[in-house]
Structure formats: structure tokens, C-alpha cells
Write a structure and sequence with these properties.
By secondary structure, this protein is of the alpha/beta class. It has two domains: about 40 residues, no CATH class; about 110 residues, Response regulator (Rossmann fold). Helices cover about 30% and strands about 25% of the residues. It has six helices and nine strands. The strands form two sheets. It has a five-stranded parallel sheet, sandwiched between helices. Helix 1 packs parallel to helix 3. The longest helix has 13 residues. The termini are far apart.
């Protein structure tokens, strides 16, 4: 592969590249837009002979984090899931608020990432419902939105990012939120 090659791809195709992250290349990721398209720049920096899981392969930024992603766009779910799994997170997804509420009632999660424009109820109503429940009621939540970022209605969200979301910003925000989970 040529140095600094630019590759436009879908999340399914990227999964093969990301699984080899520790052995093949440093990956600088552009941004994800509302349709879930990613632009990826690969800059090879080490040998393809480094075995995955070796000491030189550091743990991901989200290692051990249990994450629930809620978005009605399959492409966004796939792209964000791929990125977060690449960084060590355990990811569950929901395409509807009712599916998200079902999963939150059955499993514990460390972080929630939710779109605002969802079917059934918007992301604000979803988070208000979660906050009134028992299990996962205090989960830190990140809003991903294609709408303006007026922080009035989303006071229940821990943080918010606007689409298109630069992937580096998403990872840094999730890492910061996950570090806040660890008692000092």
C-alpha cells in the first residue's frame, strides 16, 4: 500500500483493516458524516511481521469499556462500533430507543452514545427515561447529533459532539468519559 494512501470505504470493509491495527499501520481517521462514510488515511509505520497481541501492541484507548451505541442509521452504528471495538471497547448497539431501553434493563454499561434524532422518541427523551430508571440510571452519556449543539435541552447528557464527528474527537471524548468512571 502506498504511503499516505487515502481510502474511502464502508465500515464492513474497514473492519478487516482495523483488526490488523497493531501489526500493520498507524491509522489516522478523518471523520464520519451522517451517512456513516469514513475517510481513512493509512500511514505504515511498522512491519507487518509484528504478531497481534505482542508486547509492542498497546491496549486500545477504550480497553474494557462497556459501551451502548444508539443510532437509527446502520452505517453510523457499524462505523462507530468498528472504531470503538478496535480501541478495545465491548460494544452493544440499538437502532431504536425501545431496543436500547431493553438492553439497559438487562445489562450494565459504562457509557452510552446516542443520536438525538431517533424514531419512537428523541435522544433527550430516551436519556430522561434512562435517568428515571434503576439500572444504568447514572450512565455517562454522549450525544451525537446532526442538529445544532445548543446545550439547553441536553443537560442530561455528559457531553455532545456534532456530526460530522472527527473520529479522533469521538475517541478522546469517550476516553475522557471512561477515565472519569475510575475513582481517584
Amino acid at each position: 500500500m502506498a504511503e499516505n494512501a487515502t481510502l474511502s470505504s464502508t465500515a464492513g470493509e474497514l473492519r478487516l483493516l482495523f483488526d490488523a491495527r497493531c501489526a500493520a499501520a498507524y491509522v489516522r481517521i478523518g471523520s464520519i458524516n451522517v451517512s456513516g462514510t469514513l475517510i481513512v488515511n493509512l500511514i505504515p509505520t511498522r512491519s507487518l511481521l509484528v504478531p497481534p497481541g505482542s508486547a509492542s501492541c498497546s491496549p486500545g484507548l477504550l480497553s474494557g469499556v462497556r459501551l451502548l451505541i444508539v443510532d437509527d442509521a446502520e452505517e453510523v452504528l457499524d462505523a462507530v462500533t468498528t472504531l470503538c471495538e478496535m480501541e478495545g471497547a465491548t460494544v452493544a448497539t440499538a437502532a431504536t430507543p425501545s431496543d436500547a431501553l431493553r438492553q439497559l434493563a438487562q445489562h450494565d454499561f459504562d457509557l452510552l452514545v446516542s443520536d438525538i434524532g431517533l424514531p419512537e422518541m428523541d435522544g433527550y427523551a430516551l436519556l430522561a427515561t434512562i435517568r428515571r430508571g434503576e439500572r444504568n440510571a447514572n450512565i455517562p452519556a454522549l450525544a451525537l447529533t446532526g442538529y445544532s449543539t445548543a446545550r439547553g435541552r441536553n443537560s442530561l447528557f455528559t457531553d455532545e459532539l456534532s456530526k460530522p464527528v472527527p473520529m479522533a474527537d469521538l475517541l478522546i471524548t469517550l476516553q475522557t468519559m471512561s477515565k472519569a468512571l475510575v475513582p481517584a
